[in-house]
Amino acid sequence: MPLWLILTGLALTAQAPASWVTVGVTQQAPILSGFASVQPSVPIAITALQSGVLTNLSVVPGESVQPGQIIGRLEGQQIAAALAAAQGASNAANASLAAERGKLADHLSTNAAVAQAQAAAASARAQLAALRAAASLQSPVAGQVQSLAAGPGAALQPGQAVAVVQPAAGAWVKAVLYGPRAATLFPGTAARFIPADGAPVVPVTLLGMQGTQADGGVVLAFSGQALQPGEAGTLSLFLPRRPVLLVPSSALVLDDGRWWVMLHDAQGDHAVQVVPGAAQGAQTPILSGLVAGDQVIVQDAALLYHRGIASQYQPPD
């Protein structure tokens, strides 16, 4: 075969388009987990989960309380503004969902876009419900009020104690969780305590927030049955479902501590920086940098990326 024909074949092979996939959206319930240990029955502080002014304080030291009993409320401009913002976000998300459903009926949208809008609306509703629940200060356990740490009219910050309750009985789980979502959990949230020694998993329920560590860890208290004081393990809970973009892990390229994908669009193939989540088998969630419907290259993505970087440099004279 003539040399020019061989070289032509090689050139055509090098220029052949790489395969790509369309970025899809799926619903996912992220897992929040951290170290936990079972504590003996000790006083539990009822703390504010949001900023606000303490009103309607209805208990005194020595009074008995029941699980879920409201002992006070948070009011004032700060929590009112937060509630208004959350309500506005929920209304906007619902309107966006209705609009996407209307466009889908007219064949102007996609099922992926509707699913993404539906998940966003559900997330906004969950945040609004959590904020409304945080406006009511509730006793997480049955017990007796030991002391009050704040009085009516006090301006409270998240994590600030209002009252201390001595539980009537039972051990509890102390867990330390990290991340902005840990501070937004509200009493009644279901979780699982997984003992490190292989003992059966124990369903537990969030009682309340105990405070924040110097390293940012949020200390939370959970109740459950058949807890053994001194036992250690992991506390795990599912957060509200949210839309997640998934791409094949082979599409990701790591360069100088940053992650990239090769985006295929009308402008050709070019690198786009992304923020990936934890890999899930052959798929990786993308937290930012892409939108549903984007097309990313999965075959020889690293080769194409570095070829594009190399083309930006010229050899020295």
From TrEMBL:
Record-level GO cellular component terms: cell envelope
InterPro entries per record: MdtA-like_C, MFP_Cation_Efflux
Listed GO biological process terms: copper ion export; plasma membrane copper ion transport
Pfam families per record: RND-MFP_C (PF25967)
Domain of life, source organism: Bacteria
Signal sequence extent: 1-18
UniProtKB keywords: Signal, Transport
Domain Multidrug resistance protein MdtA-like C-terminal permuted SH3: 244-300
Name of the molecule in the record: Multidrug resistance efflux pump
